[in-house]
């Protein structure tokens, strides 16, 4: 709840400032302008105090994360690396990379597994509830891929994929499709879908008659790979974390 007792809690503008949202003076203006909610209530009083460990604070509808023990990372998994935190067969996995690049035992969950032959975006966090929701199919978090396929893609392929194709484990479909580039014998296409089944993009395109030669996941929900190089890890921005929370209703 919003705490109005001046002897308890922390002033809301101080919480926002400490979370890195804005300077204290700018945070005060956000509150006065009606841009801040606490536990679902719009707050416009500068004297408002909150419990930063318990309150759900949102600015412009996006949740503010005030727990500095929480970690949110974006990894560009290289081709050939396995999407596991450890591997009992000694194969190279993302856990090895994270152990080298992230200090301390953060007990990270990996969100968005990729097969070894696919490179691209994987999210890592110790925020268990966010990780659970991002992985759960009921929240339908979209994922975008760039796929290099063999041959020249016909005009109607996107429509067929949106309508759905029957696979061995049931029908599957995509949300959007676009041809990005074409050279003789190959086509680069962008595919967005919220399916999470194993190797779903490869299986869908193969079933449509266009086997995948190379595959990169470029986006998970509001988070984009951008120019991040394979094998690199970066911390998500506060805005990206807030948008992930919003995408899964937290």
TrEMBL record:
It catalyses: a uridine in RNA = a pseudouridine in RNA. This is Pseudouridine synthase. It is an enzyme of class 5 (isomerase). The keyword Cytoplasm does not apply. It comes from Mycobacterium simiae (Mycobacterium habana). GO terms for molecular function: RNA binding; rRNA pseudouridine synthase activity. It holds the Pfam family S4. One of its GO terms (biological process) is enzyme-directed rRNA pseudouridine synthesis. Belongs to the pseudouridine synthase RsuA family. Keywords: Isomerase, RNA-binding. Its EC number is 5.4.99.-. Residues 10-70 form the RNA-binding S4 domain. The keyword Transcription does not apply.
